[in-house]
Design brief:
The strands form two sheets. The protein has an eight-stranded mixed beta sheet, sandwiched between helices. It has helices spanning 15-27, 58-73, 86-96, 108-112, 120-137, 199-210, 229-239, 254-262, 275-278, 283-290, 301-310, 321-332, 335-352, 355-370, 381-393; strands at residues 2-6, 31-37, 46-50, 77-80, 99-104, 143-146, 160-162, 186-190, 217-221, 246-250, 266-269, 295-298, 313-316, 402-403. The protein is built from 15 helices and 14 strands. The longest helix has 18 residues, at 120-137. By secondary structure, it is an alpha/beta fold.
Amino acid sequence: MRIGILTSVHAPMDTRIYFKQARSLAAAGHEVILVARAGGDIRDLRYVPIPVPESRRGRLRAALRVFRAALRLRCDAYHIHDPELLPLGVLLRVCTRARLVYDVHENVRNQIRNKYWIPRPLRGAVARIYGAIERLCLRWVTHVILAEDSYAPFYRRQAVTVVHNYPILDGVVPPVGERRYSGKPRLVYCGVVARIRGGLEMLEVTAQLRAQYPDIELHVIGPFFPSSFETEVRERMEVLGLTGHVTLHGRLPLDVALEQVSRCDIGLALLHPDPNYVDSLPTKMFEYMSLRLPVVVSDFPLWKRIVDDAGAGAAVNPMVPQEAARIIARLNEDAMLMGRCGASGQRAVQQRYSWEAEKKHLLAVYAEVNATVPADTGTRTPALAGAAAVGMAAGTGRDGEVSGAS
């Protein structure tokens, strides 16, 4: 099949979109074309870069550019990754008769309730309106892919497959066998850095441990959201006397990020008990485990069950930094315990929580979608021309297309 993978929001080398799904589909023999923001160093599949929007309003223009680029590709199926692309995905299907796959990364209804830029009294209404629009659009969706099992109740009437966001082991995760821990300790967080994701609590934990471990380090890998939150974090670092103890790495390529994680001792995921997180699997936790790091994570029932069953670390109340500090100190003082937690977590990922095991579900979705593709896909030209006129009327301009890096 020719598959167009579309996103106007995510980075072109997003781990789930590019490293996991696009490359797995291409390796399975599909012709994969990625339409995404400019800036990706993508050399192993066809890549159509879209100008990066400079504002929230610019995201609408970016979505329209993705739509116009997708129309020209004449794909058998379009795989969309953003809620704002869903109505345009429906239009793509109507115009081209291609199949439409909708990939749900988040519980969007719950996510809307945390959007700081939406006035709080309006968030409930916006979430309900979004739900109504999504239900209407789903009538044209061929298959829904969910990143989490907990999203399934919202999509009971659809053809649904859960494709978990487990870490890639083959060729991405640095090989880690027996390891020696630094004793400092070196703590690490990898993911979006936000208040609701424990951005300040991690600093408090580090500050509490600094008296006991003067050389303690905290490595924070990932972009800030919103970007203004970085200023608040840096100011709090100064107040707590953590300058020189905390390194803010920003966004790093996946392989570079995992290499940095592998140099650390304990992985943190102290997300707040928000409905969007409580029933979601934290990819970062599995990445830490794959690299033989003991983990200290929020005590959500799902997370606690995974960590306890694997013997990979501990689950604590994320809103009480003293709990995390106490557990970290206990781990750091017992190298044998650290080693057991690290080895057990790594074994659990290798056996149950790897992308190598999970990707078969993605490939099964496309085997099913492929069986429904019309044989006369070459007859789409009239509809394509009409749809292109719609894009021209929207005044989105012409998009460049490159093969390889932009």
